[in-house]
Design a protein that fits this description.
Length: 431
């Protein structure tokens, strides 16, 4: 009873001390620094402390299930297990301090502290078992995605990326020769090629030496070569030696890129057979990777979850074959609205999902509105010359620092549901 009362009175203060301490740890800070995480986790820990030390325990089975769920969340956000253990040790220590003034009987205090330790150890054990199982599952999915990525149509992708790389180099030269004044040159990192390489190729070719070499070239071009390529003055022209250096780096990129693609064989498994978009099972791996990129200094990303409105009517009127044709055309239209560095998935049924990399909120909303508008304005062909029009309800969720990819997906889903409830054929930004 004393333990229950102390937890009811001091759980909020204990949660405060816990997060204040953990924020001082550089690894823990990555997972706890976002305001939304702190707000949600602080309240959750306060409730958890009260529930786990309640006497009698209100629902033991529910508590066991909750510990397992916490372990799954830790695995999804890739929270290192040693940080979980550190957190448990801190809680034990703080609870002990909170109990010292409550007992005059040292023997009873020792028994109570021992009871606290056993409960914490049991909770940690349940979390750890679930953590290990979930981590293994996430690792298998991540590896499956990597193997699928390297098995894409390498011939087509290689030529596409060579083309966008040359388009960027051509754009730089045109920009330089059109002006005799200092100009803002388009960076390689933010080019179509740069986005693709950072967000897709790094996963596709993980472990290959050329990946690091290409990343180094991209950084060197943007930080050392481009800033020094400027018009010579009123006579026009540019520094020829720097142009030669730029061409040398572009040639190196093409050579390294060719080596990467030639090392891998083409396969076709891993895509949705109907729409040719990514298979949904790769979504956790892709989003988790992007969260890691953003935490290391990326500019943020967004999820667009869209549902084709009243799609059951299409299936009812034109049959499932007609519905499939509409889905295929909708997927093609969607792909025409995104960049090669972005990701598009068949999320399920008539739901499609896009991950836009390195975008602001305004840019994400513009893309979502463009997709909505194009769908609304398009006519989809059905068999025997028949056509049909469809619209979509779209939910947009910006990554806000929460390390759990499911939290982000749920926000996009909630926004999409709000769009449907608000009349359909709308774009709604998640709060």
């Amino acid at each position: 009873m004393v333990l229950h009362r102390v937890m009811a009175e001091q759980s909020a203060q204990l949660a405060d001390r816990f997060y204040s301490y953990m924020m001082g740890h550089p690894q823990a800070k990555v997972f706890l620094s976002a305001d939304v995480v702190h707000e949600r986790l602080h309240a959750s820990m306060s409730r958890w402390l009260q529930e786990i030390f309640r006497h009698p325990m209100s629902d033991p089975a529910a508590m066991v299930a909750h510990q397992r769920y916490v372990g799954e969340v830790h695995a999804r956000i890739q929270l290192p297990i040693h940080l979980v253990s550190r957190g448990a040790r801190l809680i034990k220590h703080d609870v002990h301090l909170a109990l010292v003034s409550e007992f005059d009987d040292h023997q009873l205090l020792a028994k109570t502290v021992s009871h606290v330790g056993r409960l914490m150890d049991l909770a940690l054990e349940l979390m750890s078992v679930s953590y290990e199982r979930s981590s293994q599952r996430e690792a298998r999915t991540d590896e499956a995605y990597r193997l699928f990525s390297i098995g894409q149509n390498v011939g087509v992708e290689r030529e596409r990326q060579r083309a966008v790389l040359m388009e960027w180099a051509h754009e730089v030269m045109i920009t330089l020769h059109r002006s005799t004044d200092a100009v803002l040159l388009p960076t390689l990192r933010q080019s179509e090629f740069g986005l693709w390489f950072h967000h897709k190729a790094v996963a596709m070719f993980e472990g290959d030496a050329e990946v690091g070499q290409i990343l180094d070239i991209i950084e060197r071009v943007d930080s050392a070569v481009l800033p020094l390529i400027q018009p010579k003055g009123s006579q026009g022209g540019v520094h020829d030696d720097r142009v030669v250096e730029l061409q040398f780096e572009v040639d190196n990129l093409k050579y390294l890129l060719n080596n990467l693609f030639e090392r891998h064989q083409e396969t076709e498994n891993g895509r949705d057979t109907l729409t040719r978009l990514f298979n949904r099972r790769f979504l956790p791996a892709v989003v988790s990777r992007e969260i890691g990129v953003t935490q290391k200094g990326g500019t943020g990303f967004a999820l667009l979850l869209l549902d084709l409105d009243h799609f059951k009517r299409v299936n009812d009127e034109f049959g499932h074959d007609g519905g499939d044709l509409v889905l295929q055309q909708a997927a093609m239209l969607l792909m025409s609205c995104v960049r090669s560095g972005d990701f598009a998935f068949r999320y399920g049924g008539e739901e499609l999902l896009v991950m836009l990399v390195e975008v602001t909120q305004d840019a994400a909303m513009r893309v979502a509105e463009m997709v909505r508008s194009k769908l609304e304005g398009s006519t989809f062909s059905i068999t025997k010359g028949r056509t049909v029009s469809v619209t979509a309800s779209i939910g947009v969720a910006m990554y806000n620092g929460h390390p759990d990819h499911q939290y982000l997906i749920k926000r996009a889903d909630a926004a999409m549901y709000e769009a449907k409830q608000g009349g359909r054929n709308r774009v709604v930004l998640a709060t």
